[in-house]
Fold this sequence. Notes:
This protein is mostly helical.
Amino acid sequence: MINVDMLxxxxxxxxxxxxxxxxxxxxxxxxxxSNSIAFAIAWFLTITLVSVGIIFFSSGQQVVAENDSGTQxxxxxxxALLLLLSVKNFRSRPKEGQEPEMPKWLLKIDAxxxxxxxxxxxxxxxxxxxxxxxxxxxxxxxxxxxQIDSTTWINVSIFVxxxxxxxxxxxxxxLIAGKKAEKTLxxxxxxxxxxxxxVMFWLLLVVGLLLLAQGFNLI
Length: 219
């Protein structure tokens, strides 16, 4: 049975403008195929390994159980963290008429090797505070039954597939359409660049409030 409570967490990871912008820039670089594929694979594997690790740890320590007070407090803490991050993104939004400021490392992506592209994916997916919080929340929701069975792995597969979709889809689209995909990918990149701060603000606000509501048993 699919645990629908973990879906907002997976979507929260998927709706991350900076990684999508990064992979699109890679698709315009000299090593378009090798770098983008390395990035997508590393992104997918990192989220998978971190999720599975948390599930095994929580099950082994018996820290996750349905309506367990420890689980509720984890959701409350993670929800509060995401709300703080949402405020940070709102304050960093560009003013009217101002060009959005993007991370300087995005300008160096053209010179990346597949190894660096994969390493960047690991950092953005597994070491990013927002993603770590969402992976922890999602994994704990998946393992809320307290036992690991076939349903657990079905839910993990769905969680990782959704969380990785926005990084994998541009790569697959490019591999199928080739140069014809560049116009569409450019439109995606420009929109995400302009709206990065507000997209992250609303995403973190909604998911943070959802986690707090679950933590206080309001839903």
